[in-house]
Amino acid sequence: MRIVVATIKGGLDDFVSQAFGRAPTFTIVDVDENGNIINVQAVQNPAYSAPRAAGIQAAQFCINEGADVVIAGQFGPNSSQVLQAAGIKFVSAPPTMTVEQAVQAYLRGELTQPILGAEGSGIGPRRGMGRGRGKGMRRGVDDW
User: Fold this and answer.
1) What are the pLDDT digits (tens) for 54-104?
2) CB–CB of 72/92 below 8 Å?
3) Domain CATH code at residue 35
4) HEC profile for 28-62?
5) Tally of domains in the chain
6) Which domain does 48 fall in, by range?
């Protein structure tokens, strides 16, 4: 079984990153049929600095790496749709867990559900007070 964990620096001792698409690294952990970790590889997340669609690109990376399971703190709606469509299980782990602890917790059946958060980093167009009519903060409002 191949488990991909979103991480900051990578490795079994690193903590689970709370962001999936914008995690700096992924730690790829191969586990045998007895639940023993047989291989660990830390790799850069190619989507880490992507200007947009980081979650989708990170999900595609996991697909290309042959992931059976992906562990992160939370997943955006786009990345979760891509992982689900590919048949990859994805679950969330708290930021206090190391990669090794998260993998063992998953294997014991303790990590079962993903936490879905908002996609994106908060940069870009957002809805303000004016609801797109140019009236936010009373600008352009003549009848006040």
Assistant:
1) 999 999 999 999 999 999 999 999 999 999 999 999 999 999 999 999 999
2) yes
3) 3.30.420.130
4) EEEECCCCCEEEEEEEECCCCCCCCCHHHHHHHHH
5) 1
6) 2-108
Residues 50 and 74: their CA atoms lie apart, in Å, by 18
pTM exceeds 0.85 for this model: no
CA distance 23 to 66: 18
**Rounded Cα distance, 132 and 70, in Å:** 37
Q: Answer whether residue 88 is part of any domain.
A: yes
What CA–CA distance (Å, rounded) separates 94 from 71? 10
Kindly state whether residue 100 falls inside one of the protein's structural domains. Answer: yes
Q: Identify any residues that bridge with 92 across adjacent strands, giving them in sequence order.
A: 72
* Ranges assigned E (strand) in the chain: 2-7, 25-31, 37-44, 69-72, 89-92
In terms of Cβ atoms closer than 10 Å to its own Cβ (0-12, 13-18, 19+), residue 108 is: exposed
State the chain's maximal CA–CA distance in angstroms.
72
